[in-house]
Amino acid sequence: MFETTPLRLRAVKNADYEKLHDLWNDARVQKTLSSTFAVPLDDKFEEKLRTWVSTGLMYCIIETKDNADWVGAEILVDYSFRELGLHRLTLSVFSHNEAAFKLYKKAGFIEEGVLRKTCWSDEKWQDAFAMAILDEDWAALSLS
């Protein structure tokens, strides 16, 4: 576990899966995380979540205090490079998730590519952006 004043970064616990399942079943959340249509997800989805967590290099829960999203993203990036010694972090974000896109840019992620019209949301086709930050990008940001 890693903790600062605004947040706690910790491993996923068994009790988290029900909350994650509920979160994924929220149509507002689902459309920011998946390119498929927003549909209710049954109990089999929890098995899929458990597989993602068990096979991923890093899957963590970020508990923020006082809506400290920006601080959470910054600390997660810092922790990934400083403590875990990673070389590269990657993510994808849908074009209709403007808040997340701005947050990732602010944390130092660079847009690397676009999957054009890959997701139907809000009654139109949406793009998805591939983004990444390298250890040298992070080091340059840390020095400035």
From TrEMBL:
Signal sequence residues: none
Superkingdom of the organism of origin: Eukaryota
Pfam families: Acetyltransf_4 (PF13420)
Gene3D superfamilies: 3.40.630.30
Protein name (database record): Acyl-CoA N-acyltransferase
